[in-house]
């Protein structure tokens, strides 16, 4: 009896409900097609909604088996809608000799929802906040705007997080 106890304990512990990350898809089985229309942009930041939409579509295509559509419609089983609520840039550090900003923090706020064709909400997060820092070049001849690459990095990180949250049900 004492020898069988450790074996029984291991058998019960293996069925405790834990799973490896990336394997617990919480979307219903009837969802095979997801529409991802262009996100709405309530800010003055140029093309931020296009960067975010493209990053999410690419992440869904590469990480899931779902068929992705770019337009909403009756053929999609679910629709992922997003709205860019705000963007802001804040200087973090300054160059002591010139007084100019040497690093900047970009913050983007988003609202996202995934709904089934019948209107049932499968996933919703009204307050995503993502931050990305970038360095400002101090040399005028080699000056290169870093805000667009920073927003692209932020978009990819947002897409990875969103798709993981949808798939894992967080």
CATH class of the domain at 26-86 and 109-127 and 147-168: Alpha Beta
Number of strands: 6
Tell me the number of helical segments per DSSP (H or I, 4 or more residues long).
Answer: 3
User: Which regions are unreliable across 5 or more consecutive residues at pLDDT < 50?
Assistant: 18-23
Proportion in helices: 25-40%
**Can you tell me the CATH architecture of the domain at 26-86 and 109-127 and 147-168?**
3-Layer(aba) Sandwich
Shape annotation? elongated
What is the CA-CA span between the terminal residues?
A: 42 Å
By secondary-structure content and strand pairing, the structural class works out as alpha/beta
CATH fold-level topology of the domain at 26-86 and 109-127 and 147-168: Rossmann fold
Question: What would the keywords be for this entry?
Answer:
alpha/beta, 3 helices, 33% strand, 170 residues, Rossmann fold, 6 strands
Give the SSE map.
Blueprint: H1 4-13, E1 33-35, E2 40-41, H2 48-63, E3 67-69, E4 78-94, E5 101-116, E6 121-135, H3 147-168
Parallel strand pairs: 1-3, 1-4, 2-4
Antiparallel strand pairs: 4-5, 5-6
Tell me what the structure shows:
Strands 1, 2, 3, 4, 5 and 6 form a six-stranded mixed β-sheet that branches. The chain is an alpha/beta fold and 170 residues long. It has a domain at 26-86 and 109-127 and 147-168: Rossmann fold. Helix 2 (48-63) packs across helix 3. The chain has helices at 4-13, 48-63, 147-168; strands spanning 33-35, 40-41, 67-69, 78-94, 101-116, 121-135.
